[in-house]
What does this fold into?
Amino acid sequence: MLIQTESPIVSVEEGAVHLAGCARGMRRQLLQVPLSVQIDCKPDFAAFEDAIKSSSEALDYEPPGGATEERVAESVVRLAIALQLLTWISVSRRYKLQRLPSNAEGKQRFLVVLGCFYHEPAQMALEWAVTAFNHFASPGQRASDEGVFDESVFEISKTLRPYAETDVNTKNFLLAADELDIPAARWLGDVYRYGTGSRARLLKSTITDRTPAFGQHFSTSKYVAASILRGHGLPGSEQRLVDSEQDAIAAAEHFGYPVVVKPPDRDLGVGVAADLRNREELLSAFADAQEFGRHVIVERHFEGEEFRLTVIAGKVVKIENRVAAGVEGDGISTVRQLVDRQRATPKQRRVERVNGKVYYQLDAEALLMLDRIGLTPESVPAIGQRVTLKRRRNANAGADQIRVDPKDVHPDNMALAIRAAEIMHLDFAGVDFLSPDITRSWRETGALICEVNIRPGIGSYTSPRIYVEILERMFAEGSRIPAYLLLTDGEVPLNTTSAQSLYDKLGCNGLSCAGTILIDGKALPDRPGNSFSAAQILLGETRVDSALCVMSAQLVAKKGLPNDWFDAIFVERPGPFTDRLIPLISPNAGRVQAVASGA
It folds into this structure.
């Protein structure tokens, strides 16, 4: 475990501040935390960074440079952000570090400014990072304690897990939005709003505000989806829906072995068993699939490589070849040795620790696969010989994903995937496609569309920029409407002269203040509790092309700005209070200017 040092190099001070809105240039909710660093300290940065590098955790950490005291503070902040990203917590990569006057104890103080959706995990991550830095960077500490860093990350990750996004697409879309400066706000649960006003879009993973209910309903049933595809003359699976062992056996005998068994409504390859070659294997797979529901699909097996073609808005944006988990012979090692070696890699160690899943082991399935090719665990595969351990070629079963260049895919196969998504009425779709040779047309070689997924795990492992590219296409015309803020002295009614004057002058069609929201001159029935909530509602309305939000300066000081950016902030009554407030909010505005009260 990490050691709490008696004389820490860096400490978290009291006085953290959380704002529900934005300020100081941050694009998300604001967390301000004061840190203190010993002046003239001599931390062992190399030991600290070596602990991170040697970890099996895939921490996205880049060491900072600069003067010692700033470098200490930045090291802690960057580790805290990396930890949250590792645990799928939506936090901005952006941060600010403001140098403050030294305290009476001779420590240099800093104000850390973070943008986040949840302030609790951000502060917990920062406090953990401080402890980790003091443990590994303090002179005389055992910086090489084997496994201490990983164990500590695992423990803090369990604490942070309730705040994590549950979907990889959501996590990556939020990171991409942060990079592209596209506003993102939690709408409800795991649904996020990207953009503002008439340019806003809602996303729940890859289900959008434009995904028809028809597509959502029918794509969730593999049996119905296959029927729809076959009805259009496409190579959908030949299936039977059964609920008894006798019917399963009859279906298998009708199609002829081998067959595939799977639940009709599960994602991620759950309950799927392919290449079943006899009655014993069939009944075992049937029993496993029935754990997820009474009805089970039995379908004709199709021999071919598996590909995932990700289709978005009628275009294939990504193609991956999926290869079942296995090992490659070196001509020296036994299968058992190869499996043990693969299981010991940092990636697999982390998967086992975090997910509790063991993909590389000589279990019953692996032994069956070995027996099929005449090998045992003590056999020595030839150099380059691929030894497959799993039937399923799914990421959830440890499959490798290999990016395929679209130039290497026959145009007919691309068109088939696009047509399948179109038939299922999906704007986002993952088309799982079996083909003996992806470079040749499916009309020539035959093919099988296994599934059309409404929530495909797009993933960034083989295509780090894919989520950025998707959002760039979605918001090609921009993500923000013109938005303006009028700061008043106290909560004011909507019919103030200055608000009406600005509204007319700016040509807005949306207006908000305490308790009232207008769009095109008509009041909404919504009754927000204050002008902060009213502004957030207004900026999320797709009928709004340009918005003026009226808020009290006092409420802005308490909550922050209701939007991450305003084209202009107008101050009705400048004075000492607003003079102190403006430096905090001006980084989130194109300009700040005074307006005459009642003008």
User: Anything to note?
Assistant: The radius of gyration is 29 Å. The longest strand covers residues 29-38. Residues 68-86 form the longest helix (19 residues).
